[in-house]
Amino acid sequence: EARYAVFGHPIAHSLSPRIHAAFARQTGIALQYTAIDAPPEAFADILAAFAAGGGRGGNVTMPLKEQAHALCASLTPRARAAQAVNTLTWRDGQWHGDNTDGAGLVRDLTGRHGLDLRGRRTLLLGAGGAARGVAGALLEAGVLELAVVNRTAARADALVDALGQPGRAYSRYWDDLANQGDFELIVNATSAARGTGAGAFNAPITLVNSRTVAVDINYGEAAIPFLAWARAAGCLRVVDGLGMLVEQAAEAFEAWHGVRPDTQPVYEELRAQHA
Ligand code: ATR
C-alpha cells in the first residue's frame, strides 16, 4: 500500500487525512494517508525517513511550505513562483514540488461558487507563503488588477515584484487603504486570526461595493474575524477556505493517482461540521 502524509506543525487538527481517505474510497484506490507532526528543525530528517519507509507523496502545511520548496529537486512553475510547496511527489529518488493552493482557490470560487473573477478589482491581504500561493492564480484567472497589502510593506513589494506584472499587480500600505477605492474581490491570506485570542479584523468599509465578494483562505475559527467584518461591511458574498482546502487536495490526489475525485460530496460532509 502506497504511503502518503500531510506534514505540518501543529498538525493534529488537519482535515487532509479525512479528505484523502474519502477520495480513496470513492475512486477505489488503496492508500495510506496519515498526519505527521514535523517541527521545522526536524522536517528534513522526517521527510527523508518517510521516503525511506515507502512514502510516495506528501502535502505540506504551516509552517513548512518554504522549507519544502527548498528541499525539492524540481519545481513546477507555479511552485517556483510561489516560493512555497504544498504538494510533494517522490520520483526517481527525489522530491518534486508543486503548489496547488492557487488552483484550488480559483476552482472553488469559479466552480463551486459560480463566480466570474474576470474584471474584478482585487485586494489581497497578506504577503506570506499563503498569499504567494494564490496571487499568481488570481492574475491568471483574469482579475482586473491585484492590490497587495501587508503589515510588513517590504514583503508586499517583494511579492508584487515576483509577479512581474507592473501596473496590474501593485502594493499599497495598510494605513492607506481608505484611499484605494472599492474592490469586487477581497482575499484574506494573512495568518492573523490563526493563533488563539485573535482580535477583531478592521479595515475601512469603503473597500466594499455592492458586488464585493470576500474570501478568507482560512477556515473554521481562523476565518471568523475577517468574514465577520466582511458581512458587517456589506459584502455580497463571503466564502471561507474550506472549499479551497478540498480542491487543493483534489489537485494533489490527481497528480499522485491520475484520477480526479468528485470533491462535492467530500466538501458537503466537511461543511456539515464546519458551519
Ligand atoms: P502563511 O504561510 O500562512 O502565509 P506566513 O508566511 O508566516 O504564513 O505569512 C503570514 C502572513 O500573515 C503575513 O502576510 C503576515 O504579515 P507580515 O508579513 O507583516 O508578518 C500576516 N500576519 C500575521 N499576523 C498578522 C497580524 N496580527 N496582523 C496583520 N497581518 C498578520
User: In the residues, how many domains can be counted?
Assistant: 2
Number of strands: 12
Q: Ends: how far apart?
A: 35 Å
Strand content: 15-25%
Q: What number is the mean pLDDT?
A: 96
Q: What structural class do helix, strand and pairing data support?
A: alpha/beta
CATH topology of the largest domain: Rossmann fold
What level of helicity do the residues show? 25-40%
If you compute it from the alpha carbons, what radius of gyration comes out, rounded to the nearest whole angstrom? 18 Å
What's the CATH H-level homologous superfamily of the largest domain? NAD(P)-binding Rossmann-like Domain
Any idea what the CATH architecture of the largest domain is? 3-Layer(aba) Sandwich
Largest sheet: 6 strands, mixed
Identify the CATH class of the largest domain: Alpha Beta
Order of strands across the widest beta sheet?
2-1-3-5-6-4
Q: Which regions contain 5 or more consecutive residues with pLDDT less than 50?
A: none
Label the overall shape: globular
Q: What's the helix-strand series?
A: EHEHEHEHEEHEHEHEEEHEHH
Q: Which small molecules are bound?
A: 2'-monophosphoadenosine-5'-diphosphate
Number of helices: 10
